[in-house]
Amino acid sequence: MDFKQKVVQLVATQVDLPTEKIEQLIERPKNAKLGDYAFPAFSLAKIQHQNPAIIAKNIADNLESPEFENIQAVGPYVNFAIKHDQLVTATLQEVLQKQAHYGDQELGKGNVPIDMSSPNIAKPMSMGHLRSTVIGNSIAQTLEKVGYTPIKINYLGDYGTQFGKLIAAYKHWGDEEAVKQDPITNLFHYYVRFHQEAETNPELDAEGRDWFKKLENGDPEAIKLWKWFREVSLEDFKRIYKELGVSFDSYNGEAFFNDKMQPVIDELKQKNLLHESRGAQVVDMGPDQNPAIIVKSDGTSIYLTRDLAAAMWRMEHYHFVKMLYVVGAEQAQHFVELKAVLKKMGYDWSDEIHYVPFGLITQNGKKLSTRKGNVVFLDKVLKDAVALAHEQIQAKNPDLKNQAEVAHDVGVGAVVFHDLKNDRMDNFDFDLEEVVRFEGDTGPYVQYTNARAQSILRKADQQVDLNASLALNDDAAFAVAKDLADFPAIIARSAEQFEPSIIAKYALSLAKKFNKYYAKVKILTADEQLNARLGLVTATSVVLTESLRLLGVNAPKEM
């Protein structure tokens, strides 16, 4: 039973407001003793020309319902207290019947391409790539749960002036055998060295631009080197994605759209949107705004040109209902220009393009930069996290089977969860020891809570009987069940806001409430409520496991 909707229906019998508006106004009282839901009467004060406390009392005096212990006015609020046993029974029945499908909804349908991860070839994946990868992956899982068909696109950075620079660097200092032995590390060193030397030798930058021009014009040597760099890079990326448990539906990078840019440029000309400015071809963005550059003064394309071609190709091939770009917050202006140019071209579907920005990961307060060589490699972080998890598992549970597998799930899961528990727009400093702790607001804490629930169920060694009583009246059980009842609404909010942290914070809240329940109640006592208690434990494990899955984190049954 959806108790919030029941509150909305009850309030709707007393006030002249649309049900959507009532639903938006419903709150959770900060003090649980006051009730489970509250309707604030402030918005009615101007309409009824009365004190909101009087309005609240009038509403409460006219309401009663068998699902609620009491309905009373407290100041300007109408508070609704749910009957404990009703909520617990209804929630456990639903979770236990639906299992992993609990929380599935039909909020929409259709294809949703998600442009995410998108590392540059010939550079190792760094912690800087983690955010786009795991945020995009979690959004994809969540959108699928609410009815959409996500299409995960790894729009590889495999084109642009930087590859001219890399070719130039390789021609100066490259060693074919060294690259074959350790491709990414060596190519990365060439790239960093190029930028260091270009600071005192500006001719290097000119060389880089020349090589990119050759690449665009189909020079055989430039293409051969570029293809080689791409191949070895993608092989390395896929190895790391496998560690993270992330897969993609497309690896079409920027180069895929190289031959699709000219039609876009031609269309902009036909629609009289393109004009010359300082030798470049630009689209006017309006007063007090810089124009959007489409073709640079040297005749080469720009990132925006390729993104326009990519957006148009994706609409043509995927017929999307919305398209997401999970890209760092510093790229905001680029997406303003992308949507504005598409809109000027007459493509109203550009309204369904959503930029999903995120903040930075820092280390010791400093921004990570590949160009300056100040970088933390993702591969090393994942290995260190797994090793740290292994140490703790050996200390806590030395006889655990499959230690290596569990350590992998815990270590990698810890890194992913730590990223996603932060609001995506927040910057955060990364400290591995904090991340892999088994206590506190961490992924391992949630995983350990789920493993504890599974341990209880193994000891009980009996199935929950859905036809027997599932009623529990104690406050600790009610607090857990209330969180379980919230799960579908949490999923919906996360999907609508493209915000995985809503699910991560929810999982932490549920884990804490379950651990309080575990500390207060002797779950395995053989009495008439044992079946209901095991139902609560099972339902908690189902929802914790599903919450972690939506975040891209595995849930070991033993730890």
Lay out the secondary structure.
Layout: H1 3-12, H2 19-25, E1 37-40, H3 42-48, H4 52-61, E2 68-74, E3 77-82, H5 84-98, E4 111-115, H6 127-145, E5 149-153, H7 161-173, H8 176-181, H9 183-198, H10 203-216, H11 220-244, H12 261-270, E6 274-277, E7 280-283, E8 292-295, H13 303-318, E9 323-326, H14 332-344, E10 353-356, E11 361-363, E12 366-367, H15 378-396, H16 403-421, E13 428-429, H17 432-435, H18 443-460, H19 475-497, H20 501-520, H21 530-551
Parallel strand pairs: 4-5, 4-9, 9-10, 11-13
Antiparallel strand pairs: 1-3, 2-3, 6-7, 7-8, 11-12
Helix pairs in contact: 5-19, 5-21, 6-19, 7-9, 7-10, 10-11, 12-13, 15-16, 18-20, 18-21, 19-20, 19-21, 20-21
Question: What are the key terms here?
Answer:
alpha/beta; Gyrase A, domain 2
Q: What is the level 1 CATH name of one domain?
A: Mainly Alpha
Termini gap: 34 Å
Estimated structural class: alpha/beta
Give the low-confidence spans: none
- How large a portion of the residues is in β-strands, by DSSP E? 5-15%
The named CATH superfamily of one domain: Isoleucyl-tRNA Synthetase, Domain 1
Could you name the CATH topology of one domain? Answer: Isoleucyl-tRNA Synthetase, Domain 1
Question: What is the spatial order of strands in the main beta sheet?
Answer: 5-4-9-10
CATH architectural arrangement of one domain: Orthogonal Bundle
Question: Can you give a write-up of this model?
Answer:
The chain is α/β, with parallel strands linked by helices. Among the domains are: 3-82, Gyrase A, domain 2 (2-Layer Sandwich); 378-551, Isoleucyl-tRNA Synthetase, Domain 1 (Orthogonal Bundle), CATH 1.10.730.10. The two termini are 34 Å apart. The protein contains 21 helices and 13 strands. The strands form four sheets. The chain has a four-stranded parallel β-sheet, with helices on both faces. It has helices spanning 3-12, 19-25, 42-48, 52-61, 84-98, 127-145, 161-173, 176-181, 183-198, 203-216, 220-244, 261-270, 303-318, 332-344, 378-396, 403-421, 432-435, 443-460, 475-497, 501-520, 530-551, and strands at 37-40, 68-74, 77-82, 111-115, 149-153, 274-277, 280-283, 292-295, 323-326, 353-356, 361-363, 366-367, 428-429. The chain is globular, with a radius of gyration of 28 Å.
